[in-house]
User: Fold these one by one.
Assistant:
Number 1:
Amino acid sequence: MTHTDIFNKKKVTGWIMIFFFIAFTSCIEDKGNYDYWEINTVDIAGISATPYYVGLGESFKITPVLTFSLGEEHDAFQYEWHLMQSTGTIKQSAGILSDQKNLDIIIGGLINAAGTYRIMYCITNLTTGVRYDYLFSVVVQDRMLVGYIVLCEKESNTFDIDLISLYRDTLTQYHNVLDVYDSALPRTDRKPIDLICYGDYLSPSPTASGRKYAIWILTDKGTDRVRVENMEYIPEFNLSSRLMALNPKYRPADGNLVADRIFSVSNHVSSYGKDYLYANGNYFFHNWVMVSWFYNLPVNSMSVNEAPYKAAPYIFMTSGGAILFDETHNRFEAHLAGSNELNASSSTLLHTTRLTNGTYFDWQDPDYRLVYMDNRTISLGYAIVNNTRTNRYEFLQMTVGEIVVNNYLSTSASQSGKAEFPVGTNLDNIKFYAYHSTLPYLYLASEDRVYRINTSAMTTLDDITAQVLPAGHKISKMKNSAIRFPRTNQMVIASYNPAGQTGENGQLAFYEVEDGTGNLILAKHPASPTVDGYQIDMKWTGFGKIINVDYKNPQ
């Protein structure tokens, strides 16, 4: 029997059996012997007549109050909670949410979007076939639309997405939101690499404000996007199918370009949308301000006729362009992507400039080996290089911006500082770097140690592991929340316990930086308690191994 006819046949069948039983017995000659059969009826109470309010991904429980006229033990009963179809007047089931007497579910799966739903509680007396129903409503709110989105490695070569949602100024942790939304995004037999949320002209879904937004998930098998509202996966919107302009020379044979990283400083309120995709040592550029340039020729080349150099996997980018590092020749290059730098010619689309003059250091120092490069803010960047000539590590600061030259708006790269790390500093084991956006504190981390250095003095590398890392944990991600995050200047540190339960042994914490010392202090949310006293530590556990953290806000 299908869900479609369950509510039309079951109930009728029971009453037909009773009718024929009465009709049959009434036709028998009355000999003064009467056998009466009393039905074990059920009264349902304890379920609200007004709608329940619950959020996607939240626990939803109902314990009904049931009264059996002959006692529950008198007969065998079947319990079902049916999600009813939202259209039409005929009561038809869209699926069973639970087959238990009491409802205890996580809102998700069949209920994977905000809206009002009807649920039918059905109790069937298996002896008589009589069914008793109670119909009620549930209003589901999407409390997961905005918040900190976390890409987690679960079991070997599997991943999921967790979320710390921001809803009415409260933070709530949700696990496995791809399951909550019943997303079809492939997540087995693939290793997670990165996650990024930002304004994207090619995003499959516009927001209410009219802007576009994207959630990209990078794995070793592909580069995919999902809808921001419900994590819906649409295969034709993955990266390989949208690279309409990618030069055939650089398109993989199977058409599936696997990105190692995607870099963007734009967000949902930006007036521009530019990003750089890094794959196989090449950078591909995407812009949708002046013209919709899709990823085309590698920008790590001085011209369309010159072979691309091998670019380092780090970049510093602004709205005006980016600084790359040429690992083939050990020098910095600038890709200029300002307002007047792009036109309809694919040759000028490259528009990569060789940097020569420098105030603090030589852009083309052949002894430089790039260790790391990143944004400090949306307009300031920094790089760490190993100077093989002096056997010292150097800390370089730079910017890319638009300037007016001869009444013409152009883009240029400039330097803003250079400092040397203390003699004897060895950064071979450092995997993560994060630079505070206003204070002179640079944080460095290996898997099991966290350090801080004051870039104004550059005298000592202080070990601050005890401030942030639980015993036995290893660092899996460290970053500064200067870009796209609602509260800037926080240090975001993710760690995991290798001896813990795989998929549940990760921790995420946010730290404020103490002015004057650079010490990391566990952040609170909100920064000051609310009127009713709400304030929590910004630290959560129960994640898998965290690969990256970003902030989604498509509103």
Note: Helices lie at 6-26, 177-180, 239-242, 346-350, 465-468.
Number 2:
Amino acid sequence: MAVQRDITERKKQEAALHQAQQRFQLISRATNDVIWDYDLVSGEVWRSDAYAGVLGDSPTEIEPVMESWTNFIHPDDVGRVLDSLRKVIDGGKDLWGSEYRFIRRNGKVAHVIDRGFVIRDQSGKAIRMVGSMLDITDRMAMEQQLRESQKLEAVGHLTGGVAHDFNNLLTVILGNTETLAELLDEPRMRQMAEMTVLAAKRGAELTGRLLAFARRQPLNPKPTDLSQLVDAMRPLLRRTLPEHIDLEIVHQPDPGIVEVDASELDTALLNLVVNARDAMRDGGKLTIETAKVVLDSHYATQHPEVTPGDYVMISVSDTGVGMDSTTAQRAFEPFFTTKAVGKGSGLGLSMVFGFTKQSGGHIKIYSEKGEGTSVKLYFPQVQGMQQPAGQAKTRADLEGGTEHILIAEDDDLVRQHLQAQLRVLGYQVTAAASGPEAMAALDAAGNVDLLLTDIIMPGGMNGRELAERAQAKRPGLKVLFTSGYTENAIVHHGRLDPGVELLSKPYTRMELAEKIRAVLD
């Protein structure tokens, strides 16, 4: 009977052990964590199949030895990791943990968190460790994207406030110095005025680039054929490049139509070409390519901002000095530049980045030190849409009129400047410093043909609200908005609302005159 009881008890223990092993196998398969078991006596290591996913091998190719792990720890981390492991094994602690970089078979770096529990014998000697490894590479990438998004949002708020005030000042400076440049007869004084005009325009460009980076630039997208756009820019691009840089433009047949602001894309493309030129001081080759591409679901999982589908790509590639991975990661940051002090603002690539994102596109940079750089812009293809026929623009003399214009502008200098400019052009002008004041002026005036209003104003009524109330009282009243920073009053999802006319500050006298006539006519 005693023997029978022993056999029965042993079978129960074996059954319990088998059940425990089955549960352990199920748990190790059900989790994405790598489960490992390290026998410190024999040196043998068992790992769950998830380890093959981290390493990039099939489970059968991974040997059950420590070297299958230690040989793939990043060289800069391996000393620290093994030292912390030895301290736990040789000491009296039971828990070990470390975060480190792991080199996959394909050479790419993974970030992992590794934890282990030490099992000791009765004497306290460590005989076994059981633990888990978690791949946090994707999580870290998402956290980095979140930080970048938050940083972008903070810069955007700061940029908007600065741009609004700065563009008001530039509007007055640009308008007055243009007038001075025409009125002054003394050559030296006239040259100084013209230099001031150029400086004001440079300031406007810098502010525009900041707004583009912060995705707060009002865009007016239209159906555009990128191949035609690039071909139209060929003469300008060729003049931008020195003779020792070859230019090649390659188009895939019929890449498709996209909806973008063509003038802003011109600027973005020119920025990329200038950057490429500066990277090829000793000459080289610049290639601009347009093509239809498909960004599939696999690509979208690696780039969460991408929606799978058909895109039209435009790429600018050079054979210049290239960038290391650290520099390439920072290339789109505002004010970051590898150029010498005074040689660049660090806003060129930032502007391209912001414009592409605001247009609903995707941007990717590829670069290798000493090999060159390729920047690729992807814009969603628009199905069933044709590019409208272009109309040639002609530059005419300043054209005014006799209509009555109501100005709503809170900045005293800008308001006085606008009054003077419009009266010179022959218009009747009434000016107000706020929305409520403008409504009172509208009630008092006999006939008003155009409301020219800033968007951001004090008094509890912004420009959009003023326009709606004014048009409710005077149906058919024409409205032209003007602002150095539009916020969301007339711009939604980065685009001007349908039917909205905007004159962005700062503007020249010609731009002011042309826009007013275009709206009135």
Note: The CA atoms of residues 221 and 495 lie 7 Å apart.
